[in-house]
Amino acid sequence: MIRPICKDNFLLAMKSAPATAEDLATAQDLLDTVTSHAHECVGMAANMIGVLKRIIVFQDSMKFTVMLNPEIKWRSPKTFDTEEGCLSHTGTKPITRHESIEVEFLDMKLKKQRRKYSGFTAQIIQHECDHLDGILI
């Protein structure tokens, strides 16, 4: 189900709780919502649809990937400065991101995964993980 985008800064600034099997419907709603905004968005966190659970979705090689309880386990020492925008607010903000990351997460089958990402995909994941910690970009 496509849900409206949350723009409530109070809710967006709250930390999200761990996701469980009971949150798979929310993960699907998040996937449906980001897909409907694919023309203007490459990733979303569950709080962007008003749900404070640790779930993100991001575009990777022209398809969307869902992560439950993503945890960045490693960050490259090499960083870069960029500007990012977000559907939850207008405008862009400057930010520093790590060039590469390694993430541990559960997939939609609740299987533990660990993967490395770099470049723009790593940037998106870092942005969405910030959302889960209540960091507004």
Give structural attributes.
two-stranded antiparallel ribbon, globular
CATH superfamily: Peptide deformylase
What is the CATH fold-level name?
A: Peptide Deformylase
The count of domains is: 1
| Overall mean confidence score, pLDDT | 96
Tell me the Rg in angstroms: 14 Å
DSSP summary, beta strand count: 7
Just name the CATH architecture: Alpha-Beta Complex
Structural class: alpha+beta
Strand content: 35-45%
Strand order of the largest sheet: 1-2-3-6-7
Principal-axis shape: globular
Stretches where pLDDT falls below 50 for ≥5 residues? none
- Helix and strand element order: HHEEEEEEEH
- The CATH class is identified as Alpha Beta
- Biggest β-sheet: count, sense, barrel? 5 strands, antiparallel
Helix tally? Answer: 3
How much helical structure, as a percent, in the residues?
Answer: 10-25%
**N-end to C-end Cα span:** 26 Å
Please provide a written account of the structure.
The protein has 137 residues and is of the alpha+beta class. It has a single domain (9-132), classed as Peptide deformylase (Peptide Deformylase), CATH 3.90.45.10. The chain is built from three helices and seven strands. The protein has helices at 9-12, 24-36, 119-132; strands at 43-45, 55-60, 63-75, 79-86, 89-98, 100-106, 112-118. A five-stranded antiparallel beta sheet has the order 1-2-3-6-7. A two-stranded antiparallel sheet has the order 4-5. Strand 4 and strand 5 form a beta hairpin. It is globular and about 35 Å long. The mean pLDDT is 96.
